[in-house]
Write a structure and sequence with these properties.
373 residues; seven-stranded mixed sheet; five-stranded parallel sheet; 9 helices; 21% helix
Length: 373
Amino acid sequence: MKALGLVLAGGNNNRMKELSRKRAIAAMPIGGNFRCIDFVLSNMTNSQIQTVAVLTQYNARSLNEHLSSSKWWDFGRKQGGLYVFTPTVTADNSWWYRGTADAMYQNIDFLKRCHEPYVIITSGDCVYKVDYNRILDYHIEKKADITVGVKDMPETENVSRYGVVRMNEDSRIVEFEEKPMMARSNTISTGIYVVRRRQLIDLLEHCAQESRNDFVTDILIRYKNLKRIYGFKLDGYWSNISTVESYYDTNMDFLKPEVRKFFFRDYPHIYSKVDDLPPAKYNTGSQVRNSLVSSGCIINSKVENSVLFKEVFVGKNCVIKNSIILNEVYIGDNTHIENCIVESRGTLKANTYYCGENGVKVVVEDNNERYGL
């Protein structure tokens, strides 16, 4: 392959609220059995990219454990492989990653040791399926300095939380605004970038000399009139899970037949770390409609339009509607849950009621008094 991969998975976002208190956003569970980073890693291996580095920082323990074996994404090989880089104290530097450009600069020796002519830079908090070879071929055809993966969003979508771009007739980016208050376009950056490796090294070294740390602000926006920066429009499903609402909506999208078919049945496939768990068990009295129920779950009640992750126990006479129940949650008898995200490893006591009245409610119950129910 002519490119290596860099996955930026070290950031934190306060808009995820309680959901990012104990895990990185890239480690958020998606679609029943997956983590968010599984999608970009699967895209890498499906695009025959053999060398991939993941840059982690915030709440990285869960993410690092998930990435502890590279065999799940077929990166267990002599040449190339999956690398996980965290901030390291050295004789010359004791900083944490101060931004996306600084994160890459602190690992610039890795870029210098590699031999691939191009670099695919992606974020770890997006759910999509794409062949990066299409973007790379477009990048070479346009003789671009940098190519940005972009997507046209619906007119009703609030794009103020994205980087918004405007392109000319030749698809060259002429305007780039990061999280504008008033967007003048509905075309956004998807966090996918293609750049020649040697040019990336030069840009990162120049940023470091000027104490500039952000890839978007200090490279893309600053150089948009000096470098040939083009946009490649993505088709198909794409979602960013940087807010509670977008995380909820993305998981609920997996209840749609066309989305499930796109990710679960259509080639190429999405891969993840496999747990040795028994199949889900549906006891007498269980009623499940339009829901995803993962391995290890035990269901005794009504579940409707919901996503249940691994090893969830649902007691008797419960009602779960339009909700996302994360891993290893114990739900006591006579519990009603609606329009909620229930944090993992929580215990919901019997005879309790949780409902998101105006939007999505995040339920965090850390007590583990399961035997007292």
